Amino acid sequence: MALWKLRAFRKLGRHEAPERLETPKPRRTRPKIPFLPDEILLLIAELSDEQARVRMIQTCRRLRGLVEPILYRHIRVRRSQEPNPLNGYHLHRTLAARPDLLPFIWSYHGPLFPKANNAEIIIPSEPGEGAALWRKISTTTRKRPMNDLDYFERANIIFSGAVRIRELHCTGAITEDGARVLGAFGVPQGSTTTNIQSLVLRIGSNSPQLAPILRAQMKLKHLELQLESYVPLRLEETDLPELESLKAELRYAAEIVPGRPVKKIELLNDWTSDQDSLRQLALSKCRITEFTANIGFSHQDLRSFAIPLAPARYLRG
Fold this sequence. Notes:
There is one protein chain. The chain has helices spanning about 1-10, 40-45, 50-55, 60-70, 90-95, 130-135, 150-160, 175-180, 210-215, 250-255, 275-280, 300-305; strands at about 75, 105-110, 120-125, 140-145, 165-175, 200-205, 220-225, 245-250, 265-270, 290-295, 315. It is of the alpha/beta class. The strands form 2 sheets. It has a 9-stranded parallel β-sheet with strand order 1-2-5-6-7-8-9-10-11, covered by helices on one side.
């Protein structure tokens, strides 16, 4: 037996070695996550943070279709140069190009018109005179074509299609363009009212009349008016019929509370004793259960201050 092996080795040649048996390579297994049921994937997405959801939608089409509605459900606009779908300017461009995502929005916190970052520079959409200039710009700068929609067109598309939104907090002062956008914000087709239940507006020196905006909020429960300059409201008796919580200055509260079922009041900024305005607060349809304010007068006037609000359970100062 040994002699036969020796002869076979000589036939192979002096410089040829016998073939060695190769060990089988381990087979690569496919990731198991895409093969999980939709219910498990949705639970994972619900418990994940924002960055994890962004990575999940970049994995495959199936995860993108499942996770995108969760990612855009509660929007908190941030301004950063990092590539993130929820950055302000990039977010509005994405939503304006994807109307199918708008019905998934439940809450929106941010400006109505996000500004582009410094890294986003307008360049020609076709090669031309600006092509040479663009080559000199750092490659980390994102390109933005000149034929892109302007800020008002994007906002109008987004806010007119977000018909399921319940919470809107505007971080920028309301302007004429903002009032035009809010006129159609969250209004279902064929209706003149919105489904918004919590609204925060910042009033600036150039802010228009707020009555047309507030008149459409028939289901509003909480209203906050942040004041930079005073703008008369001129509300009608039928406006804001379901308002329960108000956060504003005393002069706004004196206009809004009478004839409405307001239970909670929080007055912004320091104010002095104003009996006429306080009597207006006592004209709420419901019993005031919580009152918060920064009292700016002496303790001897505290008794006269509390008389109109005697039914309140909590008086915080």
